[in-house]
From TrEMBL:
Protein name, entry field: Uncharacterized protein
Top-rank taxon, per record: Eukaryota
Organism phylogeny: Eukaryota, Fungi, Dikarya, Ascomycota, Pezizomycotina
């Protein structure tokens, strides 16, 4: 029978603000707000609806060996895969404002964008204050229902005048930019609890690869393939995106991380979202 830990959601600050204890189902959104109000921040991804346990486990990747855990193999660890609570270091919250910049480019800018992103990452590194930048190929019906656009958003710990401006040189079809408190950055970037990526009632089919640098030829081939699929199945591609995520790793050296993918700072994943069959049923 499936085991649910959904109600194990709580936060306890410990040792005068050096760490915090979290329930196994605690989500990023409430954590950011609670810690910010107390003067702290913690490691987390950009989506408010993702569990904090993901960050505490290095994104789900460890440096150990892979084993199969079931009733007959390593049975003593069978219940160990259910994480009911965990502890993480927390830090003073620092800058009061965070800068965000949202861009939308048409497909003809693809090579310019990914070349600039490789420069932005600076020889496979992303500086701490750059925080993260994420983007995707997706269908934006207000611009075109036949070919994908490039949506990109970056977050910078600090204000506009100090933020990275390398992407500004590429003419965008749409831009949105502002400085907001850290608690508002996810909503501004479309990653909040009320945004489509976080809605219940849908099934996400994903597959992830890890990269150190973007290959412009491969990105063009992927984008063109997405365009062909859009022509074949408009309903499926309407909820599908080819996602790219890049996070600051400057403060995490190889010896300090349990992740065997520590050098692969870029995450790229296919994400298809379809309605769960039960969500289509009436009351």
């Amino acid at each position: 029978m499936p085991t649910s830990i959904w109600q194990l959601s709580y936060i306890t600050i410990r040792f005068g603000g050096k760490s915090a204890w979290f329930g196994g189902s605690t989500l990023k959104g409430p954590v950011v707000q609670y810690l910010w109000d107390k003067g702290f921040v913690a490691t987390a991804c950009e989506y408010e609806c993702v569990g904090m346990v993901r960050a505490s486990l290095g994104g789900g990747h460890s440096g150990g060996s892979i084993i199969r855990v079931n009733a007959t193999s390593y049975s003593d660890l069978y219940w160990g895969i259910i994480i009911t609570s965990y502890e993480m270091n927390i830090l003073p919250r620092g800058a009061g404002l965070w800068h965000y910049h949202n861009y939308i480019w048409r497909g003809n800018k693809l090579e310019l964008v990914f070349n600039a992103l490789n420069q932005l990452h600076g020889n496979d590194t992303i500086l701490i204050n750059k925080a993260y930048n994420v983007g995707n190929f997706s269908i934006n019906a207000t611009m075109s229902s036949e070919e994908p656009v490039l949506f990109w958003t970056l977050a910078y710990r600090g204000t506009t005048e100090n933020a990275e401006k390398i992407l500004n040189a590429i003419e965008a079809a749409y831009q949105q930019v502002d400085d907001v408190p850290h608690t508002q950055i996810a909503q501004a970037q479309g990653h909040g609890m009320s945004d489509s990526i976080c809605q219940h009632g849908s099934v996400h089919s994903t597959s992830t690869v890890f990269l150190q640098v973007y290959n412009l030829t491969a990105e063009r081939l992927i984008c063109e393939s997405f365009k062909r699929r859009a022509a074949q199945d408009a309903d499926l591609t309407a909820g599908t995106s080819i996602m790219h995520e890049a996070y600051s790793m400057e403060a995490v050296g190889p010896a300090a991380s349990a992740s065997s993918f520590n050098a692969d700072r870029l995450l790229m994943l296919f994400n298809a979202v379809v309605l769960h069959p039960d969500s289509e049923k009436g009351p």
